[in-house]
Design goal:
Elements lengths: L26 E6 L3 E7 L10 E7 L2 H10 L8 E2 L1 H4 L5 E5 L6 H16 L7 E5 L5 H8 L5 E5 L16 H7 L3 E4 L2 H7 L3 H13 L3 E6 L3 H5 L3 H12 L5 H5 L2 E4 L13 H19 L1 H6 L1 E5 L4 H8 L6 E4 L6 H11 L1
Parallel strand pairs: 1-4, 5-6, 5-12, 6-7, 7-8, 8-9, 9-10, 10-11, 11-12
Antiparallel strand pairs: 1-2, 2-3
Helix pairs in contact: 3-4, 3-14, 7-9, 9-11, 13-14
Bound molecules: 2-phosphoglycolic acid.
The site of 2-phosphoglycolic acid (PGA) has 13 residues, from strand 12.
Length: 341
């Protein structure tokens, strides 16, 4: 174990022991490669007048650090910094309600959700609710102008306006105050035949209207088992984002959602997810350059829940989550947001 002024003494369950004098400017940086590595530096304004301390080591689990932090009187000053934050990617957690929740149910949800959010500092996480179109005004209303939670739509038209029965344009969404739009979800690809080039047209419309597209990609189990994982993801990324300038691509959010994990209760392991995310980032780098690729946020989706969010979110290339089932309950959605804080 390395460490400057002996601020590590290998305490309970292997957690770091932190002398009381180090109360100020405490900073943990976590760099995860399936095993945790922790680092901290503590400023020297403490009671003992000791100088700055530093330490680093391996942790088996981020939980240990969080438990430890919660026990310390200066816990409020401790903040876990994930690798994605070090890369300046703000985590983004979105609840995709799919075809659930009418306006009345949404109002009830929002009352509970706002209480949940008030219980912790979630300001380091971008939070998004994605209701059905008809529920959007009720959600906006219940948020009461609070911009701490963004609202997204589940789809948009590839056209501007006109005789396209059943379609909703990006301008209409923007007029309601919508800031995000989920595009290319596997359910839309599967049940409504959406193709990569069709999705590409909608991504361009969304960007032109100032909306943030959440571009969903992911392989089926047959494709994964058949060794096609990388080719499927490469095609979905490159065709979905074809024709975008690097500055436009930087503002897109990608949601990697293995189709076999959606709504099945079967989650990709943290390792499987990280490998896919790292691959997607390499494809983004091929298309838009490394600098742009490092800015693009890649969410994981597929049975993300409070009890697996922490481990998934701890992976260096996982920058958030697109949540289905667990986003339908204010307490479980808030718990996932908390895991990303
Ligand atoms: P799930 O859905 O969390 O219920 O698996 C995720 C999604 O479809 O975005």
């Amino acid at each position: 174990m390395e460490g400057g002024n002996a601020a590590y003494a290998g305490g309970r369950r292997g957690s770091p022991v932190f002398p009381r004098e180090y109360q100020a400017e405490t900073l943990f940086q976590i760099d995860i490669a399936f095993k945790m590595r922790w680092q901290f530096s503590a400023g020297g304004r403490g009671r003992g007048g000791a100088g700055a301390a530093e330490g680093e080591g391996l942790l088996q689990s981020r939980h240990i650090l969080l438990d430890f932090a919660a026990e310390q009187e200066h816990a409020r000053r401790i903040r876990i910094i994930t690798q994605s934050e070090i890369m300046s990617r703000k985590p983004i957690i979105a609840a995709n309600w799919k075809m659930n929740m009418g306006p009345a149910e949404a109002r009830e949800y929002l009352a509970g959700f706002r209480k949940e959010l008030a219980a912790f500092d979630g300001s380091h996480v971008e939070k998004v609710l994605v209701p059905p179109f008809v529920t959007i005004p009720a959600v906006m209303d219940a948020l009461g102008g609070c911009s701490c939670v963004g609202v997204g739509a589940q789809n948009c038209s590839d056209r501007d306006n006109g005789a396209y029965t059943g379609e909703v344009s990006t301008a209409m969404l923007a007029e309601l105050g919508v800031r995000y739009v989920v595009l290319g979800h596997s359910e839309r690809r599967r049940y409504y035949g959406e193709t990569d080039s069709f999705i590409n047209g909608k991504i361009k419309k969304a960007l032109a209207a100032g909306l943030t597209p959440i571009h969903c990609i992911g392989e089926t189990l047959e494709q994964r088992d058949g060794g096609q994982l990388e080719s499927v993801l490469r095609t979905q990324v490159t065709e979905g984002l074809a024709g975008l300038a690097p500055e436009q691509a930087a503002s897109v959010v990608i949601a990697y959602e293995p189709v076999w994990a959606i709504g099945t209760g079967r989650t990709a392991t943290a390792r499987q997810a990280q490998e896919a995310h790292a691959f997607v980032r390499s494809v983004l780098a091929d298309s838009f350059g490394r600098e742009t690729a490092e800015k693009i946020r890649i969410q994981y989706g597929g049975s993300m829940k409070p009890d697996n969010a922490l481990e998934l979110m701890a992976q260096p290339d996982i920058d958030g989550g697109l949540i289905g089932g667990a986003g339908l309950k204010p307490d479980s959605f808030a718990a996932i947001i908390r895991a990303a804080c």
